[in-house]
What we know:
The chain is mostly helical and 155 residues long. The chain has 2 domains: 14-79, no CATH class; 83-150. Helix content is 65%, strand content 0%.
Amino acid sequence: MSCSTKWPPKLMNEAAYNNWKKDVEIWGKLTDIPKNKQALAIHLSLDGRARVASSELEVAVLESDGGVEALLKKLDGLFLVDKGRRQFIAFQEIYNLRRGDGLEVRKFISKFEHAYFQFTIQGMSLPDVTYDNMTSVLSRSFSGGFGAQASGFSR
């Protein structure tokens, strides 16, 4: 997520809501936008379901000193309501993770570790054998230069 101190971070997808929320908190401490205008700026950066939910709040609420908190509470109700849904999204991220053509193994490992971190903060874990095996195979493949056949992975 990229943003400037002038404009709030953009919510790229629902799976990244918690990260985005933390980025908004940091942005709120860095921006020069007055506290009573920050929720308005965040509202304008949203799209999709988040924008619809934000639009349900009165402008006067968004324009108050507590506007950011009210907006985040509204969005929490939308994105944090169902633990099962959050777990499913985190599982899907790992399950659908693929190393695309041209993606360096080091970057793929980083993406896997981030997806696994998101998976664990939802209160889930892979069996140690699976996680250890995956990281071991990826590390061997990267350091030893094995191809997809030798590593046990194929596209």
